[in-house]
Amino acid sequence: MNTTAGVSASELAVRCIRIMADGDRADFDALIHPDAVNREGDVEPPECRVGGPAGFYATALWLRTAFEGLAYEFHHVVADGNLVAVHSTMSGRHVAPFAVYDSQGVDTVFPPTGKTFAITQSHWLRLQDGRLIEHWANRDDLGQAKQLGWVPPTPAYLFRMARAKSRVRRAA
């Protein structure tokens, strides 16, 4: 078992995901390596694309703003040296606009629906020096979109999406 100060790699990986829902900045500074990279950051806001604790904390705030009651349930955690695979369910309620980005800026904005969701995810984390240094994920984005009423979109929801996208672009 790979341990750092008595904490197994599996326990450390779970803590790194759990803080996305409820950690404060100090938690991110303690658990995320200064050189950490989030391989999923290309669809996130620009402030989330920086490395280290600041980028991971910005991702947490982005998710928490859009999804009230953000929570993770852990099903399986498997560690092999400094690589840990985590199978979990993320849940929450969509209460604020959720903006997705591309290399040009804002790509799509999903206005709040007030609906709840619960989707499975697989996270892959590489650890170094007792902290997270690299993260990848596979998520059920289509399942989330269906549960939240994003797809298939109604004409009224498409109009709300266009209006929300315009607001986010103006604010950026």
From TrEMBL:
<protein>
    <recommendedName>
        <fullName>Ester cyclase</fullName>
    </recommendedName>
</protein>
<dbReference type="InterPro" id="IPR009959">
    <property type="entry name" value="Cyclase_SnoaL-like"/>
</dbReference>
<dbReference type="GO" id="GO:0030638">
    <property type="term" value="P:polyketide metabolic process"/>
</dbReference>
<dbReference type="Pfam" id="PF07366">
    <property type="entry name" value="SnoaL"/>
</dbReference>
<dbReference type="InterPro" id="IPR032710">
    <property type="entry name" value="NTF2-like_dom_sf"/>
</dbReference>
